[in-house]
Specification:
This protein has one domain. The chain has 5 helices and 4 strands. It has helices spanning about 10-25, 35-45, 65-75, 90-100, 105-110; strands at about 1-5, 30-35, 55, 60-65. α1 (about 10-25) links the parallel β1 (about 1-5) and β2 (about 30-35). The longest helix is centred in the N-terminal third of the chain and has 13 residues, at about 10-25. The protein is globular.
Length: about 120
Amino acid sequence: MKIIIFDSVCLLCQSSIKFIKKADKKKMFTLISREDSLAKEMISKYGCFEDSIIFIQEDKAFTYSEAVLEIAKDLGGMYKCFYIFKIIPKKLRDSIYTLIARYRYKLFGKNDDCKL
């Protein structure tokens, strides 16, 4: 099972999840809002940070840029090409991810509830 836990009030996150849903032709991903009780349980179980997208696969949790790259790889097709960014040091990738995450509400907006 492949689970993606996301921030459901973030408009950037919502757009990303809509994109993933559309690109996921094999219907391999289960999408869970971070506000969901199951998500909270999994965040606690895996010791993940709540300020990141979380991708759980084969009982392993990926966060930040690692999660994004793993999801792109699993989507296959041309999206798999993004996995090349894995050659960039994780610390640098995560710094860029964190910077965007920090300002995502200001840059992209926020909903009071999930529209998905």
